[in-house]
Amino acid sequence: MFNFHIISLFPEIFDTYCTTSIIGRGCENGSIKVQAYNPRDFCTDKYRRVDDTPYGGGAGMVMKPEPLFAAFESIQRHPNSPVLLTSPRGQIFSQKLAHDFADNKSQEITIICGRYEGIDERVATLSTHEISLGDFVLTGGELPALTIIDAVSRLIPGVLGQADSIIDESFGTGLFQGILEAPQYTKPPEFRGMSVPDVLRNGDHKAIEKWRRQEALRVTYQRRPDLLDKTDLSKEDNLFIETLKTK
C-alpha cells in the first residue's frame, strides 16, 4: 500500500475527492491510502489559531510553525520518505517527478499544504521538495496536493484498471515518451461532418503506430515545441518535423 499523508486546514477536500472514481477505487482496494491531518487539531491555544501577522509588516497572514510542526511530528512515517511543501516558488511538478515519488522505496509521501499569505519559512526545513504546479498563485495548497495524489496514484499498481494506460500516453514510457499523445477517436466513424482517419480503421497496426507517432510529433511541435529539444528523436522523426516546418 502506498500512503499519502496530507497536512491541510481543509481535510474534507481530500475526503470528497479521494472516495470517487479511480482514486477512490485505489483506496477501496487497498492500493493507496490518503490520510489528512488538520493543524488546528494541534494548536495549544484557546482559539486554535494557525496564523499570525508577518514580521516586518505586509499584507495577509502567515501560517504559524508550531501547529504545522506538531501535525508533521504526529505522523508515523518512514524517516527517509519524501516531504513535499506546495509553494509557488517550488520546482514545477512533472510526470518524471510523479514517477520518482511513486518509485520511492518507503512507498509514502507527506504533503504540507500552504494557505493565507504563506507559511513561516522554518516549516520549509521539514520538506525534501518544494513543488509548484506552474507560474501562478492559488488560494491554498490543496489543489496542488490533489494533483500530486492523482498523478502519483495512477502509477501505483492496482489503481488503474489497465496498467498499459500509463505507457502510451503523454509523457509516458512508450510510443509518446517525452512528447504529447496523439489524437484519440471512438465510435461513430462520422460525426457532424468529421470523420475518423481511415488509417485507424484499416487494421494495419504498423501503419497505425506510424500515424500515431507522427501525429504526436505534430501536436507537440504545434503546442509544446520545447519538449522536442529534450526528447531523443529518430532520424525518421526529425525528417517528419522538417516537413512540418515547411508548411
Overall description:
- Helices cover 30% and strands 17% of the residues.
- It is built from seven helices and ten strands.
- It has a five-stranded parallel β-sheet, with helices on both faces. The protein has a three-stranded mixed β-sheet with strand order 3-4-7, with no helix packed on it. A two-stranded antiparallel ribbon has the order 9-10.
- Strand 5 (83-92), helix 4 and strand 6 form a beta-alpha-beta unit.
- The radius of gyration is 22 Å and the shape is elongated.
- The termini are far apart.
- The model has no long low-confidence stretch (mean pLDDT 94).
Strand content: 15-25%
Tally of strands? 10
Could you give the order of the helices and strands? EHHEEEHEHEEEHEEHH
Average pLDDT level: 94
CATH fourth-tier homologous superfamily of the largest domain? SPOUT methyltransferase, trefoil knot domain
Distance between the termini: 50 Å
Q: Mind summarizing the main beta sheet?
A: 5 strands, parallel
Radius of gyration: 22 Å
How many domain regions?
Answer: 2
Structural class: alpha/beta
The residue fraction in helices comes out at 25-40%
The top level CATH class name of the largest domain: Alpha Beta
The helix count comes to 7
Any idea of the CATH topology of the largest domain?
A: Alpha/beta knot
